[in-house]
Design brief:
By secondary structure, the chain is α/β, with parallel strands linked by helices. It has a domain of 53 residues. Helices cover 45% and strands 14% of the residues. The protein has three helices and three strands. A three-stranded parallel sheet has the order 2-1-3. 6% of the residues are buried.
Length: 97
């Protein structure tokens, strides 16, 4: 008899906890701001060979990921880079395709 009462009591407590906590689950009053894309010099610089089609596609896909994550990036052809030979001081990653 006591075991039955303890079982019912634990079931009642579990039900109360679950229904009491779920009421506020989807009621969020917080305002979220969409972060802006960085306007700084690029953190990532892509150097690609214009004749390598797969490298161009790969760079485009990586650029989409960086756009989504708001990371500043820049794409240059290898021959454009060879004319200047300049890497921005903020650049932390250089990829060569």
């Amino acid at each position: 008899m006591i075991a039955k009462k303890i079982g019912y009591l634990s079931l009642l407590i579990t039900f109360t906890l679950l229904t009491g906590c779920q009421q506020e689950l989807y009621k969020s009053n917080n305002k979220f701001n969409i972060p802006e894309k960085s306007t700084e010099e690029p953190l990532v610089q892509f150097l690609i060979e214009p004749t390598n089609y797969s490298a161009i596609l790969e760079t485009e896909n990586l650029a989409k990921a960086f756009d989504y994550s708001k990371i500043a990036h820049k794409t240059l052809w290898v021959n454009q880079f060879n004319e200047k030979l300049n890497i921005a001081p903020t650049t932390r990653v250089v990829t060569v395709h």
